[in-house]
Amino acid sequence: MTRLANCVAGLIVAAVLTDPAWAQTPPADSWALVWSDEFDGSGIDPSKWDFEVDCWGGGNEERQCYTARPENAFVQDGRLQIVARRENAVGPALPVHLDDALPETERGKLAAKPFTSARLTTKGKADWTYGRFEVRARAPEGQGAWAAAWMLPSEERYGAWAASGEIDILELVNQGTECKSCEDGRENRVFGTIHYGGEWPRNRYKGKDTPLPSTDDRFNVYAVEWQEGEIRWFVDGQLYSTLTRKDWGSKAVFSKLPRSAPFDQPFYLILNLAIGGNLAEDTNEGGVSLEGFPKTFEIDWVRVYQKPRDETGH
């Protein structure tokens, strides 16, 4: 469950009900708002978000260094702006948790990348087991731009990635580029995916994509409803994918695993804009285009709902 007090959630509900965007994706009956960020303040709220700072490339050969600089992430006009810039940068070669796992003599190495961007996370600040997670966002266009809102387990109960799972609320990759498998020949799909199975390289994934509904401002509302034994994906209120416990599993080194493992433990939220990487560079026009920088992933709001304990059993 969320770590925020019920009184704070009540105040959030009262504020959100006055927002015209509320009507765009009414949650299912009995979902109650428990956490949100409307990005209405003057800056990024440090009580809700932290920054990951490294030049690792996300394990996908991405080409950016993630920073905590205001040039790469800031709030403007009621929206979070995650900005990827074409500039050389040097930073930690590994994220903290991977660097700490190395022998002391091998820690602290640096890496250089040709782009900078930002990756925000609620790890250590808020996490949830089950809920409805909504993000209203607009992704940048261009070959190599990879915007995402997704979730990882707080404690990796069943082992390192991906044995403990990953839930991708949205991945918007190479938007607007030439796409032979897309309906109008241009990339306009959202990908909703889970990762599970064993630890890398024994990991597996499963998911689905769907064309984005057309909107005047290119903003869409993406949602995942995650309940025990079932995960559902929506865009602008329309269901486009459902997976159940029959579709996933974990190869953790335990003799007995819960039926819904690994998706039965607290997960936290991540928002990021990557440049390049295996998924982006191996599809559509290929590689990374150097045109159109800086590129901005805009997030209007993030909202988390849960059902009462007597309905979910949690």
Tell me about this structure.
With 314 residues, the chain is mostly beta strands. It has helices at 6-16, 96-100, 278-281, 309-312; strands at 32-37, 50-51, 64-66, 73-76, 79-92, 110-117, 119-121, 131-138, 145-153, 166-173, 189-197, 203-211, 220-227, 230-235, 238-244, 267-275, 295-306. The strands form 2 sheets. Strands 1, 3, 4, 5, 6, 8, 13, 14, 15 and 17 form a 10-stranded mixed β-sheet that branches. A 7-stranded antiparallel β-sheet has the order 2-7-16-9-10-11-12, with no helix packed on it. The chain is globular. The N and C termini lie close together (8 Å). The model is unreliable at 1-26 and 310-314 (pLDDT under 50).
Compact summary:
This protein has 314 residues and is mainly beta.
Describe the global form.
globular
Quickly count the helices: 4
Rg on CA atoms, Å: 19 Å
| Class derived from helix and strand content | mainly beta
DSSP, total strands: 17
- Give the biggest sheet: 10 strands, mixed
How many angstroms does the end-to-end distance come to? 8 Å
Query: Which percent range describes the beta-strand content?
Result: 35-45%
Fraction of residues in H or I helices:
under 10%
Q: Low-confidence stretches at least 5 residues in length (pLDDT < 50)?
A: 1-26, 310-314
Mean pLDDT: 90
> What order do the helices and strands follow?
HEEEEEHEEEEEEEEEEEHEH
